[in-house]
Amino acid sequence: MAGVWINQILQGILLGGLYTLFATGLSLSAGVMRFVNIAHGDFIVLTSFILLVLVTSLGINPAIATIIVLPIAFVFGFGLQRFLLQRVVGENVLLVILVTFGLSIIIENGLLEGFGADPQKISGGSLETATIALGDGINMGVFQVITFVAAVAMVAVLDLILYRSGIGAKIRAVSDDVVAADLIGLSSARIYAIAMGISFVTIGIAAGFMSIWTDFDPASGGTRLLIAFEAIVLGGLGSLWGSLVGGIVLGIAQSVGAQFDIAWQMLAGHIVFLIVLAVRPQGLFPKY
Amino acid sequence: MPTAPNLLLSGLRLLFAAVVIAMAAGPYFLDPTEVVIVTEFLSMLVLAIMWNLLAGYADIVTVGQHAFVGVGAYAFFGFSALAGLDPYSSIPLAGLVALIIAVPAMILVFRLRTAYLAIGTWVVAEVLMLVAGKLQAWGGGSGTSLPISIVLSLGRARNDRLAVIYWLAFALAAAAMFVTYFLLRSRIGVGLTAMRDNEEGAAAIGVNITRARILCFLGTAPFLGMAGAIITMQKLRIAPPASFSITDFTVFIIFNVVIGGIGSFEGPIIGTIVYFLLREYLSELGTWNLILLGTFSIVVILIERRGLWGLFRRLLADDIVPVAHKPTQPAVVSRRLSATES
């Protein structure tokens, strides 16, 4: 009996890896630019549909398709920030929320128009079904383990970029004080755009793993955004490693909730989030 | 001598008053289909006014407004169908339940800052919808229909029922406008307007921002709940995804207010009118409708933040419904000053 629960917790931790992939890009853009990109989840779903087209119509391997998409994602994120979001950033958060909200609805309905409402999935081949048996009825999916490792690697790399590289120092400077950063000759608009570009690379990676892990449909962006958001608030705003912990907490909550009753999966995650918000609003590892 | 902008203004005020009076008598001259559409218009108007009050004045951008509409719908069903109360007293009770639910919701989401708060309200709405789907007496995940006895208690003939629901929606919309008007004209409203224009400045001159925000958040909840009750009377059924519809009660509302003009009294009215005109003429567009409105609202934000009303307002000497206090003329001030000195 204990094996069942250990298994659920283990699956929850692995699911947390996927959720961390959703969350890190949002954490970066929210931490640097102080706004939440409401279309974050919809961009993950949009990228998944692009991957779907690449994989099914051109017959490219999903991993290679994801790698092809990443530089395009960076350029797209850079351009989106530079030419659209930058116009409304800074003066009033309301405007950025509304613009990204508009984008989210446009993407969702554009996908609905192009692909219909049916759930889609990309096949991961034999990798998807391979498992590692740990005994006592506990099995780990190989693909799930790879996803988790990728999530940890992504957080580590982003942490290195932010705290050990030149561009990271610039990003943190702009994040701390835009006016002062501009005064010492940093172009905040360009640095914001780079941060958004990096955020979009994480969206591309998240889409690559998500499209094999689960079904997705045009309307599933909202749920992805809520999960990413809950993970970063749980972990503590601005803390990258915190969002890994936040993602794992959510994953375990959902996985254990689903063991009681499958309908409780989503609700269990939300409830854990609200409880933490009530007792520890600064999150588990607050940065500020 | 009246100038052209002043004449236009007087004309618009007369038109506004005439339309409101004509609408009060709506069911006497509209055919049943039109009555249904205008009822929908009035309930959407209530939602738009409330969202505008929160986002346009109190700086609470919520994307979870559908939560309280759904709570109202479910509470209305509970009081009327399950507890057997008459539908008329169930409406204010539904508003009361929305208010009660709004208190813990507010305590939770107010812990988050602006941008995070927006998504926090969405999480709350999601939780309430999922919980509503677990209420077996309310039909669980698939929902249920309003019992026929309640439908009949509103009127034996279909047209009578439609008229009753129409007047309920009219009364709620009128109340929403009155309350907003007097709130914005009051001391609190002046503080809210100051907050809208400059939050730090408002706080510095002593506007109690937190109190104003709490008042707005809690004040809008019963209106949303009652709107949910009236929408349920019209749709005759409740179901988690339909009663808590983010598209109908939040997405469209946000687009309408943004396009009409956020942070003004006229904005939500104009936005809702534009939406209904578009819907009547572009209904075959389906999902393109949302794509179009989304694009339009982004363009509005980039070009003219005060929306269509902001564009039009330039031609006028004053607002149609003047919610702002006129600044005292310099001459008057100096006269008053000299009067106090002497």
Features:
heterodimer; A: 288 residues; mainly alpha; ABC transporter involved in vitamin B12 uptake, BtuC; two-stranded antiparallel sheet; 12 helices; 2 strands; 76% helix; 3% strand; globular; B: 342 residues; 17 helices; 1% strand
Mean pLDDT of chain A: 89
* Main β-sheet, spatial strand arrangement of chain B: 1-2
Question: Roughly what percent helix of chain B?
Answer: over 70%
Structural class of the helices, strands and pairings of chain B?
mainly alpha
Q: What fraction of the residues of chain B are assigned to beta strands by DSSP?
A: under 5%
Instruction: Return the domain count of chain A.
Output: 1
User: Assembly type of the shown chains?
Assistant: heterodimer
Over all CA atoms, what is the radius of gyration of chain B?
A: 21 Å
**Which stretches of chain B are low in confidence, meaning pLDDT under 50 for 5 or more residues running?**
none
User: Average pLDDT of chain B, to the nearest integer?
Assistant: 85
Strand content of chain A: under 5%
Number of strands of chain A: 2
- In CATH, the topology of chain B is named ABC transporter involved in vitamin B12 uptake, BtuC
Question: What is this structure's SSE topology?
Answer:
The complex is a heterodimer of chains A (288) and B (342).
Chain A: H1 2-33, H2 40-58, H3 62-84, H4 93-115, H5 126-129, E1 131-135, E2 138-141, H6 142-164, H7 166-176, H8 178-183, H9 188-213, H10 221-235, H11 240-260, H12 264-279
Antiparallel strand pairs in A: 1-2
Helix pairs in contact in A: 1-6, 1-9, 1-10, 1-11, 2-3, 2-4, 2-9, 2-10, 3-9, 6-7, 7-9, 10-11, 10-12, 11-12
Chain B: H1 4-24, H2 26-29, H3 32-57, H4 66-82, H5 87-109, H6 114-132, E1 144-145, H7 148-153, H8 158-185, H9 187-197, H10 199-204, H11 209-235, E2 237-238, H12 240-243, H13 246-260, H14 266-282, H15 287-303, H16 307-313, H17 330-341
Antiparallel strand pairs in B: 1-2
Helix pairs in contact in B: 3-8, 3-11, 3-13, 3-14, 4-5, 4-6, 4-11, 5-11, 8-9, 8-11, 13-14, 13-15, 13-16, 14-16
